[in-house]
Design a protein that fits this description.
single chain; 636 residues; hypothetical protein PF0899 fold; 26 strands
């Protein structure tokens, strides 16, 4: 029995039965009967993230028409504000927040209310405040009850309220009397069964005196009708789901407001057999609870399934587990580190034409020097070499397709935007890779980005890329790192590129240099910026695609260690219409949406001596390999 309504600030319908909500669902009678008499928080607009939004509490009363709430506001600032809003009729609507939901089509048949909210507008049009009580410091009403009836009239009579309260109390008393009568009848039936079993010698009795015996869970279960037992089977199945799932406040299910109920229909195909139910109930006392007994027997019995004719049936206890929840929406790409790509693409020099020709005059030779003149001698002309090369464009593309059915069915995220993002990301990475080191495909591949169209800095001619090659025979990793630093500093002597260049290298080389220590164990370089200053570069960028890259020159396999270049000296040209474009087309025959992203560009260094390429090889390893081959040939 709830407290008298005068102990509350206001009351009204938290939700009404058989009213179609704005989301198309309908709450049925007794859907929340288990919440009868419970007290839940009263919050503002279902906002659980801030404790200041807790306005008070609400006592719930399950009625045939729905769930009625008697609400008490607290003395916080939020509670006082809500009291004034309600008093003046500014806020008149209520809403519920529930979980553990069961649904039959569009009808909600079971759930658990976790809070009641004051809202500006709810999905259930008849969930609203009916009665407002105003309390003074002496707990006496400052004014008469103001109540809005369903017909829209206002009532100001305390007598009418008391009569209504009395009517509700009488109805509840009648309900309790009915329940007591049912309990008495059940006890009489149980007593008759005990007396009947005593005649068979199962119980000892003397005269009219019987030995009192508490009924066991198994005896209660056996006294049920077949219909009641079927209900228990379903409840035990639900207990299995709850026990095996995540046991939190949400019962392993998604919390929702009443106007966004989860479609969580029970699969009537999955049932426990009668013998398994009896065994579970028989051991419930031993295990301490029904849940523990269910878990103890799950491994032994599992879940019965229908015949194999039900091809869509899921077998085993897993059928009761909640569905997996996707954490990555949209799915996260498993890819190489691509932070360096944006730096490369933004650093190169761009021109609005793709056919590039560069001409240079070499005046470094002695023949180009100015000469002294002696009277009577012939004056000689200056001699220098003209150097010229041209670079033509090539189309680079990426193509993808999606079935239109998949595009329609995937509604948790925009799959088209997701695919387009991947296509642009991979195209940029491929262009950046081709600029620095080439695409790595064999020359005969149809998919290769040809090096005469996009010229890699790594393999460019000596006129444009200075190649510093070192034999690291017998060196330890720290020795290689120290030697690498010296090589970088010395190579700057021949560098003719623009400004302060950037070093592109691998994570291994950067790590080895940062791990260098002095004789007493102190780090020589505290940070990457300190190391970059030592190497005479503006910054150090690690490039995953440079890991383990090798090439063979004059029979020697060289490993790429680093590239030092200012990409302002690298030109990427594209004619009008040849820049990056995305195309879409629909294939009617195959019901597929097809996507193409492509560009037509050329790329090359346009300044001599604009890059430094550091490579290394180990002559010891190569010597051992040669000896092994010779030995093998000798044995043959």
């Amino acid at each position: 029995m709830p407290k008298r309504q005068r102990d509350y600030d206001f009351c009204g319908w938290a939700t009404r039965n058989d009213v179609k909500c704005s989301d198309g669902r309908t709450i049925k009678r007794d859907a929340f009967k288990d919440d009868d008499g419970t007290i839940v928080p009263l919050v503002w607009n279902h906002d659980h993230g801030d404790p200041n939004n807790v306005l008070g509490h609400a006592e719930l009363k399950n009625r045939p028409e729905g769930v009625y709430a008697y609400c008490k506001l607290n003395d916080t600032e939020s509670g006082k504000t809500a009291r004034e809003l309600i008093k003046h009729g500014d806020v008149t609507r209520l809403s519920i927040y529930a979980n553990k939901l069961k649904q039959n089509g569009g009808d909600v048949i079971h759930g658990s209310i976790k809070e009641v909210s004051l809202v500006l507008a709810g999905a259930n049009q008849e969930a609203k405040i009916e009665d407002v009580f105003m309390h003074s410091d002496t707990d006496e009403p400052e004014s008469a009850l103001i109540r809005t009836t369903r017909d829209g009239d206002l009532c100001h009579s305390d007598e009418e309220l008391e009569a209504e309260e009395k009517k509700l109390e009488d109805e509840e008393d009648d309900k309790k009397d009915d329940e007591k009568n049912e309990e008495v009848e059940e006890k009489v039936e149980n007593k008759k069964e005990i007396e009947h079993s005593d005649e068979k010698g199962e119980n000892k009795m003397a005269g009219n005196e019987t030995e009192s015996k508490e009924e066991t869970v198994e005896e209660i279960f056996n006294s049920m009708s077949d219909k009641q037992k079927d209900c228990v089977y379903a409840l035990v199945g639900a207990a299995v789901e709850e026990a095996k799932g995540a046991n939190d406040d949400n019962g392993g299910k998604e919390d929702m407001k009443h106007n966004v109920f989860d479609n969580d229909e029970r699969d009537e195909k999955m049932v426990l057999s009668h013998s398994e139910i009896e065994a579970i109930f028989a051991d419930a006392k031993k295990h301490g609870s029904l849940k523990e007994s269910v878990l103890a027997h799950t491994d032994n019995y599992g879940i019965q399934q229908l015949p194999s004719s039900y091809s869509d049936t899921t077998y085993g206890i897993d059928a009761l587990f909640p569905d997996y929840k996707e954490l990555n929406t949209p799915p996260e790409w498993l890819k190489r580190e691509t932070d360096w790509v944006a730096g490369v693409m933004s650093s190169v020099h761009h021109t609005p034409f793709s056919r590039i020709k560069t001409t240079y005059a070499d005046i470094t030779e002695d023949e180009a020097r100015a000469k002294g003149y002696m009277k009577g001698n012939l004056k000689k002309e200056e001699v220098f070499t003209l150097l010229k090369r041209t670079t033509d464009p090539q189309t680079i593309y990426k193509k993808q397709k999606l079935d239109r059915d998949d595009i329609i069915d995937i509604n948790s995220f925009d799959v088209v935007a997701w695919i387009k993002g991947e296509m642009r990301m991979m195209l940029n990475e491929e262009i950046a890779r081709a600029i620095l080191v080439g695409d790595g495909r064999i020359p005969s591949s149809d998919d290769k980005i040809q090096e005469q169209h996009v010229r890699p800095v790594w393999t460019d001619s000596e006129l444009f890329s200075i190649h510093d090659v070192k034999d690291t025979k017998g060196m330890t990793p720290p020795q290689k790192a120290k030697d690498f630093i010296k090589r970088c500093i010395k190579a700057r002597k021949d560098y003719k590129g623009s400004g302060n260049p950037v070093m592109y290298t691998t994570e291994d080389w950067l790590t080895e240099m940062l791990l260098l220590e002095d004789n007493i164990g102190r780090a020589l370089y505290d940070s990457e910026s300190v190391l970059a200053t030592k190497l005479r570069v503006s910054k150090i960028v690690t490039v995953p695609v440079m890991e383990g890259l090798t090439r063979t020159v004059d029979g020697v396999e060289r490993t790429l260690d680093a590239i030092i270049v200012n990409l302002k000296d690298y030109n990427v040209g594209a004619d009008k219409g040849g820049d990056i474009n995305m195309f879409e087309d629909f294939d009617i025959d195959y019901n597929q949406q097809k996507y193409l992203i492509e560009t037509r560009i050329s790329g090359a260094l346009i300044k001599p001596k604009a890059a430094i390429v550091l490579e290394s090889y180990d002559s010891t390893t190569e010597s051992n390999d040669d000896e092994g081959e010779d030995g093998g040939n000798g044995e043959g």
